[in-house]
Amino acid sequence: MRERIRVLIAACFYYSGLVKLAHWRIRRSGKHLIILNYHRATGKNLRQQMYYLHRHYRILHLETALEELYSERKDKKAPDRRIPLVLTFDDGYRDNYTHGFAFARELQIPFTIFLIPCYTESGCRFWWLEGDYLVKHAQASDVTIDGRTYSLMRNEDQVSLARLIDTRLRHSESVVEREAYLEFIRKSLHFSPAITMEEDLSSPLTWAEIYKMEESGLISFGAHTLNHPVLSCLSDPEEVKHEVQACKEVLEQKLGHSIHTFAYPIGKFEHFGEQGLQAVKEAGYKWAFTTIEEINTPQSDPYLLNRLPGDIEQHWLVMASELVGLLGIFSRIRKKL
Length: 337
Fold this sequence. Notes:
This protein is of the alpha/beta class. It is 48% helix and 12% strand.
């Protein structure tokens, strides 16, 4: 019911012309760049969102948009004065290829995927999906972890255990520690794989899929660390540097060209900190992206660029209003313009 009300309000904003007026106000207030941060690429709402964005925004390649944002040159004859917007997808899920790439070709719109090379190489399930997956496919009927016994026949115990696993993985002080804990959980749950990753749209992209997307000229790729640790949780500063630098090196070797863009895992400052920021600068990236929910201006720090969340469950009318500050979490943007 609550979502229906939001859609109704958003429809009023859109069909009354308020969204169009808000667009005009943003354009008149100076240079701006909206960067959307998606992860998955499935669902009918995403298709409708892409149609809306394609019609009302000037969707650009990431690096092209950034060069334009920071350029001092003013092209008064530019025929397309729509607000510039960039689409990004973090992690590199397989549905970015099966669904996202299909949208890109259909509408001829570009987007960027930030990759985690070690998952592309191994094909393993992303660690943040493991807690829920392992618990649901456990062969054990109960298990004792950290002094508490969980009955896996009870839904509330399944939820609690999955949350515990995710928390422990998220706060691991090294990738080795994280993988060791995962192996401990698998053995404790008597886990054996029940689903092949080949047919799972949440599995990582393969190199073959990545190469095909890049060949199209529509899809570009950036770095997202080697193994997607929470950088601020790593205890060894050298591991932070390795995750950031080696990711760039692997991608450049695999793709055959320089990689200039980096997205911080999770993405708020507390998730990467000053140490992560410095590692990105030292690695030679030109731009780096957070998940801080703001729009970008020429005054934005190129190593702390903002991204608004892309929600594949959201109705396109709600998204249309939120992007210009008429609804929800983006209302504060309107106050700044």
